[in-house]
């Protein structure tokens, strides 16, 4: 093990937002304090109390000639610029080592709006729009567009997603899973977000001005993309280097689904974690691009966090560029990262705009002696910069960039990781029913002491996640309290997220107008609400991310959770796979032509949630935990395919299995059972058969969980691993493997070892 | 108390805020531990009452939001026929 962790460097920048169509023009505006906020044009806001937005001037066709949801199109535009800026010659690269990781909040909301508006207005709904709905599609679309065959992920932690994705790229490069990442975030302007924040009265009537009058946010759209690569890879191709990405910190408030903790504890935890993981002292930070949304709750909590950690530092510059490009939600962190890196480059700091001379005086009093930058840019040699993002669900993320290389001590823990608890929520098939549905009635929750007052706020997706999370903690015998709350984290994996709540909210807006969104439902429309509720209910305050990436996200979450333990972020992780099934999803899958008999004509749908408790060997030993199995090795492999192509070639699956087996330090022959993913879609089932017979020429036992509880997507992927873990003791062999697939040509594999 | 208004308010709370009908009485403390409403829910109540009765409760005192009974009284007093 090397003494220091791999350097991750930024070699390309791409940006599109209301400030301009590329990084240079956006920076030119931002550093001259010019705002891109105007009256909204995407839809009619006549009946709303606010009319401001930060929209991108380019039409879908101008962004990219291909047919994707606008969120993807914005990202393709920014990613194209970033790749060109990096000078990388894709023709000369091993494309399996170039991944795509993106943050998004609303995903394909524009396509959901279009699909249901067509239905509502009596036009035939376009099947193609269904494929554009899920956030899961985005990174795979971008990878497919550029012909990249590396790992993909969509980080869907609302307004912290853009920052978390940059951190995720570095984590995977440092873990040796890729050389290069197209990393960033993207979100389009949407009636969903506008109506939601309008309903919450969180929109500013006029242009937002964070840390000032704090009357609310102005919503924006856009995409920021960074090319992040290992220093060795960048140096070998003679790339120009903008800066190093040092470390990041992720935490959860465990407080409220929309409001930040007033005491700023969660925010400060993320900032301290980022500094610790970067090996820097907070006193060294020169510039902070703040979250600074402009709501009173955010600004008050953030003022408090900054004053507490950085008070009386007039030399520390702080600003919120959201005053000029709006709050771009899942893209925000990535857009702000580009502007932060530009600040390093230029030796000047962009301002927060919209201040009168009286406002500036008031800011000075609130600032606690910190050098908040108002109205005009400030000359400053920025050597170390921090960018902060705080989200719905109480998710916080902080990341640090450095102009100079810094050595960061390698604390990677390679000790065994064990599965020490399992919570399974699966569906059953009622008589005469065509699919499997789970029981999430209040009575079930009462058995686990979940009160009505808490439960009633949850949508179905959140109920599923909460239930399996609680059951898993109970199974592992873990009680969360002040002594361990910061050492436990959560990774949720999903294919389709809380699509029912999203569609119901969108239908309401379509039928009753943008001014009539539901404040009650809106918080549940973000994919990470479920992980947020789980942390609020249990009190878990550590790492907390949600990955949307097709069915295999239920295994990808386990890999992400293992990596959080390996990095030393947490001792215990809850890794989860969840997908819900209501009549809304049943109809969408039927319209896509995916449903059938579960044998050879298509899938029988199901739903569920499976949470696995993963524990470091040290924590397991200290607790005397029972061990189902050891996670011995894992891998994800992709061979780019269109998002709607199911199956594709078996090449990527073979690669995922071979890499996972090698990661476990064994040979394929050591494995006794494969827990597969056959679900009745012939092309897909054939891929599994071909891959298995290529690797195990003499045959091997293959088990499937879908016949018992339906195609519950990410939940089925996690269930196959849970089943493998539970059957490990009775197995003749020492090893088994769970495999899964996701649309867009992505496959994953996890090897378990008898504990 | 106007029973008709109270019943409509109860129905609205059950639908908009997913409060189980059998756990909601006219005197249940809405923002207490059992029902557990918060600031987001109060926004929904304001919108719901505006929709149902054309009564604007924004900016009105906390005491009016205590229970279905107090909401009903407020509506009765401010409703224009």
Could you describe the 3D structure shown?
The complex is a heterodimer of chains A (755) and B (81). Chain A has 755 residues and is an alpha/beta fold. Chain A is 36% helix and 21% strand. Chain A folds into 2 domains: 8-402, Thiolase/Chalcone synthase (Peroxisomal Thiolase, Chain A, domain 1); 417-753, 3-Layer(aba) Sandwich (Peroxisomal Thiolase, Chain A, domain 1), CATH 3.40.47. Chain A is globular and about 75 Å long. Chain B has 81 residues and is an all-alpha fold. In chain B, 51% of the residues lie in helices and 0% in strands. Chain B has 3 helices and no strands. Chain B has helices spanning 3-17, 39-53, 68-78. In chain B, helix 1 packs across helix 2 and helix 1 (3-17) crosses helix 3. The longest helix of chain B is centred in the N-terminal third of the chain and has 15 residues, at 3-17. The chains are: A alpha/beta (755), B mainly alpha (81). The A-B interface holds A 199-201, 256, 258-259, 442, 451-454, 456-457, 516, 518-520, 523 and B 16-20, 23, 33-36, 38-41, 43-44, 47.
Q: Layout of SSEs?
A:
The complex is a heterodimer of chains A (755) and B (81).
Chain A: E1 8-17, H1 23-31, E2 38-39, E3 52-53, H2 60-63, H3 70-86, E4 98-103, H4 109-120, H5 127-131, H6 136-146, E5 152-155, H7 161-174, E6 180-187, H8 191-199, E7 222-230, H9 231-236, E8 243-252, H10 265-278, E9 287-289, H11 296-310, E10 317-319, H12 322-325, H13 332-346, E11 348-349, H14 357-366, E12 371-372, E13 378-379, E14 384-391, E15 395-402, E16 417-426, E17 428-429, E18 436-437, H15 442-446, H16 452-455, H17 460-476, E19 488-494, H18 499-512, H19 529-538, E20 544-548, H20 553-566, E21 572-579, H21 583-592, E22 608-616, H22 617-623, E23 629-638, H23 651-663, E24 671-676, H24 682-695, E25 701-704, H25 706-709, H26 714-727, E26 735-742, E27 746-753
Parallel strand pairs in A: 4-5, 4-6, 9-10, 9-14, 10-12, 19-20, 19-21, 24-25, 24-26
Antiparallel strand pairs in A: 1-7, 1-8, 2-3, 6-7, 8-15, 11-13, 14-15, 16-22, 16-23, 17-18, 21-22, 23-27, 26-27
Helix pairs in contact in A: 3-6, 4-18, 7-13, 17-19, 20-26, 23-24
Chain B: H1 3-17, H2 39-53, H3 68-78
